[in-house]
Amino acid sequence: MIITVKKPLPELLEMLGGAKKVAIVGCDSCAAACRTGGAPEIDQMAQALEDRGFQVVARVLPQECCHKLLVRKELKVLPDTGVEAVVCLACGSGVQTVADNVCLPVYPANDTSFLGQVERVGIFHEYCRMCGQCVLGRTGGICPVTRCAKGLVDGPCGGQKNGKCEVDPENDCAWIAIYERLKALGREDLLFSPAPIRDHSAQAHPKHLDLRGTKP
């Protein structure tokens, strides 16, 4: 799940500038789960803007704001509203998808934080950086790129204290967790196998994927 957090309202108001008629677009998927872009948050944003003299002319809640065709369909209501700007309560991908489908300024109401594991409603943990070179098979299903503050893939740094990370003592040392997991699995041998050299070209951006015509 893509995790988003709300921008400070003054920052959003500064971006809006002289626009007075605004539309609000949310996301009924990730942002709704994060409580930053669902129906309640759209209502809260509308109230906050109207209290400050803006006219909210449309409220749109696509099922997934990063789905281009869904967003295009939902935004068909906007041209007849006289809208001058769009406030998007989605992740960065959702904001860009909206911007691709309207000839209007689109402003983000959220900051995109990380790809998270859902522990339970309202509690998320960063587990993956989408680096394109997954090492989970040799680290017991624990990602050192993400869960080690230094992103070390060849082993621990030696700076841990009482099992905690020296960079952020609130976090457990990822490599101690990896060792304990591999020990429980009887696969400590993986710690002694050479780690492949990381190909940083796999992190080049932007990326594209076209599955049309591929065989299962």
> How many H/I helical runs?
7
Helix content: 25-40%
CATH domain class of the largest domain: Alpha Beta
| Biggest sheet features | 4 strands, parallel
Order of helices and strands: EHEHHEHEHEEEHH
* Helix/strand/pairing category: alpha/beta
Strand order of the largest sheet: 3-2-4-5
The CA-CA distance between the termini, in Å, is 25 Å
What is CATH's topology name of the largest domain? Rossmann fold
Mean pLDDT: 91
Give start-end ranges of low-pLDDT stretches. Answer: none
Question: What is the total tally of β strands?
Answer: 7
Summarize the topology.
Blueprint: E1 2-6, H1 9-16, E2 21-25, H2 30-33, H3 39-51, E3 55-60, H4 68-74, E4 85-88, H5 92-101, E5 106-108, E6 110-120, E7 123-128, H6 144-147, H7 174-185
Parallel strand pairs: 2-3, 2-4, 4-5
Antiparallel strand pairs: 1-6, 6-7
Structure, described:
With 216 residues, the chain is α/β, with parallel strands linked by helices. The protein has two domains: 2-113, Rossmann fold, CATH 3.40.50; 129-194, no CATH class. Helices cover 27% and strands 19% of the residues. The strands form two sheets. Strands 3-2-4-5 form a four-stranded parallel β-sheet, sandwiched between helices. A three-stranded antiparallel β-sheet has the order 1-6-7. β6 (110-120) and β7 form a beta hairpin.
